[in-house]
């Protein structure tokens, strides 16, 4: 792998990591993110809990967010729900 060679990583542990269980979990999470339209991190999904227990994302925020910005989004959703 070009990336591993470019970083001068020890090839054995690198290949073991790629073949391991943790790597499969990462691939599953990537697939879930792609299905949600997420293409970068961090991405915050803010939404509502539906009657069936599922969460419906109302808004996504991409990139670094301050606590004030996240709080403002949550307050806006709460206000709209009234």
Estimate the mean pLDDT confidence: 88
SSE string: HHHEEH
Q: Determine the fraction of residues in helical runs and give it as a percent range.
A: 40-55%
Q: Specify the biggest β-sheet.
A: 2 strands, antiparallel
The global form is: elongated
What structural class do the secondary elements suggest?
alpha+beta
Q: Could you tell me the strand content as a percent range? A: 15-25%
Query: How far apart, in Å, are the first and last alpha carbons?
Result: 54 Å
* Low-pLDDT runs: none
Number of helices: 4
Largest beta sheet: strand ordering: 1-2
The value of Rg in angstroms is: 19 Å
- Number of beta strands: 2
Describe, in plain words, how this protein is organized in 3D.
- It is built from 4 helices and 2 strands, in the order αααββα.
- It is an alpha+beta fold and 82 residues long.
- Strands 1-2 form a two-stranded antiparallel ribbon.
Quick recap:
By secondary structure, the chain is of the alpha+beta class. It has four helices and two strands, in the order αααββα.
Could you name the key traits of this structure?
2 strands; 82 residues; 4 helices; two-stranded antiparallel ribbon
Summarize the topology:
Elements: H1 2-6, H2 11-19, H3 21-35, E1 43-49, E2 55-62, H4 67-81
Antiparallel strand pairs: 1-2
